[in-house]
Design a protein that fits this description.
The protein has a single domain, classed as Thiol Ester Dehydrase, Chain A (Roll). The protein is α+β, with helices and mostly antiparallel strands. It starts with 9 loop residues before the first helix and ends with a strand. It contains 3 helices and 6 strands, in the order ααββαββββ. A hairpin with a 3-residue loop joins strand 4 and strand 5. A 6-stranded antiparallel beta sheet has the order 1-2-4-5-6-3. Pfam families: 4HBT (PF03061). InterPro entries: HotDog_dom_sf (IPR029069), PAAI_dom (IPR003736), Thioestr_dom (IPR006683). GO terms for molecular function: 1,4-dihydroxy-2-naphthoyl-CoA thioesterase activity.
Length: 139
């Protein structure tokens, strides 16, 4: 059973990120399912740190983007969402290609959501794992 409470599509998610930090970093939503959103981000000059590795902050941008989008669309109409806390553990260096993040819910409550985001490299190896807590606000 889908968790989404608002109309959602890959196209809508990508359109909503146009002209933002998300599009500047090349993040694009690839897929969504009944309880997940998946997006990818290039590992290139926009997302690397000076030593040629994927910048950890860019991994966090990908994680927060996925978790925030998921929380918004899993919230009732008339609600906004804001981040309360994000944690990220950087597990493996990535130097090129793409990383793919997938957000899934841990907890969907009336006033808070907690999302689990896994980011993997092109070989499917875990590069970063993140947990995002969102506040659900009535407009």
């Amino acid at each position: 059973m889908p968790i989404w409470k608002k109309p959602i599509s890959v196209e809508l998610l990508n359109q909503s990120a146009a002209h933002t930090a998300v599009s500047h970093l090349g993040i694009e939503v690839l897929a969504l399912g009944d309880d997940f959103i998946q997006a990818r981000m290039p590992v290139d000059e926009r997302t690397k740190q000076p030593f040629g590795l994927l910048h950890g902050g860019c991994s966090v941008v990908l994680a927060e983007t996925l978790g925030s989008q998921a929380a918004y669309y899993a919230s009732p109409e008339g609600c906004n969402v804001v981040g309360l806390e994000i944690n990220a553990n950087h597990l493996r260096a990535v130097t090129s290609g793409w990383v793919t993040g997938t957000a899934r819910p841990i907890h969907i409550g009336r006033s808070t959501h907690v999302w689990h985001i896994e980011i993997v490299d092109e070989a499917g190896k875990m590069a970063c794992i993140s947990r995002l807590t969102m506040a659900i606000l009535n407009r």
